[in-house]
Amino acid sequence: MKESTLAFEENFLCDQAFKVKNTRGRITPIKECPVRTDFQRDRDRIIHSKSFRRLMHKMQVFLAPEGDHYRTRLTHTLEVAQIARTIARALRLNEDLTEAAALGHDLGHTPFGHSGERALNYLLPQGFRHNEQSLRVVDYLENEGVGLNLTFEVRDAILCHTGDEPAATLEGRIIKIADRIAYINHDIDDAARAGILSNSDIPKDISSLLGSTHGERITSLVSATIGYGLENGIGMLPEYAEAMDELREFMFERVYRDEKAKGEDGRIVGMITHLYEHFSAHPEEIPQEYLKYAERDGISVITADFIAGMTDRYALGCFNDLFVPKVWQYK
């Protein structure tokens, strides 16, 4: 199987694709697998990690929504991977590298979505960015504090999926655009489910170009990314890129700042602040896989590590245990 994959890369992938034989390798060399390539092993390491499973209980936009069909950070990740793989396959780029990076891109995301991220960014002297935390998770925190020891190319794509620095590979650059295509469109779907907006609210000039349904919009934007080609790197046909930017701004106006969707932001910030202050003052209560880096990185960093790794429900339970009075009973 491994030999056929290597042959496929040589015979089918385009000249600009990154081939696994050229990887810059891992921080710590390991014995080769007879079945899987390095990028396939990275994918499997991520899928089997605890931080990947925890994404199931981290919100995307809506805080603890009532209903089973709202996106979580895990379903968002799977949608990003699906979109990224479609683009990579059509452009004859390395699908294994693309998939591994997509599956790992949000491993460091905080509980309560970007509200939690903003809280930690305010609290930490050096700030907090979830893409940097995702890299920290795979390098140090996963696997009981040992890390996942991923290849350079996957680590680089995880770090560069947001921000101004482009990934070193074209496959890594796909993640940034696939992430945006995914979250804009599934957030429209969730907002409609929550009664905040409907498809008919989307500006007509956007709908006429991208389509009026979830599937039509994704197909249009993915097709425009594929149609852009590789001559100038990874991008999107200008007319569609402009429409996606307008759609993103529309979502900020109608959903991301909406009181119904974000009405608990103040309480989330207050809760994260209380947890941060408590564990900063009592680092002995932080699990060992985080605590082992205290001397090197400082209490503020490992406190953020612990809080960022929490699921929404764990953070709520932790806050209740620490700060909510218990009912006293006489026995």
Explain the overall architecture.
- The structure is a single chain.
- The longest helix is centred in the middle third of the chain and has 24 residues, at 170-193.
- This protein has helices spanning 2-11, 38-47, 50-54, 73-90, 95-104, 113-123, 130-145, 152-159, 170-193, 204-210, 214-228, 238-256, 259-262, 265-281, 288-291, 294-297, 299-308, 312-323.
- The chain is an all-alpha fold.
- The chain has 18 helices and no strands.
- The model has no long low-confidence stretch (mean pLDDT 94).
**What order do the SSEs take from the amino end to the carboxyl end, as H and E?**
HHHHHHHHHHHHHHHHHH
Q: What's the average pLDDT?
A: 94
Overall tally of structural domains: 1
Question: What structural class is derived from the secondary structure elements?
Answer: mainly alpha
Look at the structure and name the CATH superfamily: Hypothetical protein af1432
Taken from the alpha-carbon principal axes, the silhouette is globular
| N-to-C span | 66 Å
Number of helices: 18
Residue share in helix: 55-70%
Assembly context of the chains: single chain
Number of strands: 0
Judging by the overall fold, what is the CATH architecture? Orthogonal Bundle
**CATH class division:** Mainly Alpha
> Largest beta sheet, briefly?
none
| Spans where pLDDT lies below 50 across 5 or more residues | none
Rg to the nearest angstrom? 21 Å
Strand content: under 5%
CATH fold label: Hypothetical protein af1432
